[in-house]
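Regression test case RT-17, inverse folding.

Input:
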């Protein structure tokens, strides 16, 4: 199980880098520019170890990567394609603190209807193709 999680996190770190259109040397250079005195010099070998699951990503590492990739540190461990979903979930949780239960239920129903419509559209498109 632990090995599976490590591999999942490693794949997502690589996916974020690739989605950003950066090479490992470019990520290392960006980190070294953004954090010149805060951290030891970053190199592409360290990034490769993270992306292969050979080395764990520490919190400071995640903060630096997130700054380079333009996201929050916690988002790095999910696929970049899920970025919108993560933001929507965070907004719903934040809203749940302030909204009355009836409004939360209406919002949840609307989100479910939108998801169902997307599923129907995908099924229809796959039947055509």
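Golden output:
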């Amino acid at each position: 199980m632990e090995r599976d999680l490590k591999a999942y996190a490693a794949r997502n770190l690589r996916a974020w880098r690739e989605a950003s259109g950066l090479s490992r040397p470019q990520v290392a250079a960006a980190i070294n520019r953004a954090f010149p005195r805060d951290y030891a010099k970053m190199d592409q070998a360290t990034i490769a170890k993270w992306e292969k699951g050979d080395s764990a990503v520490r919190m400071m590492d995640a903060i630096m990567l997130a700054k380079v990739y333009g996201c929050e540190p916690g988002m790095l461990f999910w696929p970049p394609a899920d970025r919108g979903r993560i933001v929507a979930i965070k907004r719903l949780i934040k809203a749940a603190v302030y909204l009355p239960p009836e409004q939360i239920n209406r919002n949840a129903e609307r989100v479910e209807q939108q998801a169902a419509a997307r599923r129907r559209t995908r099924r229809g498109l796959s039947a055509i193709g």
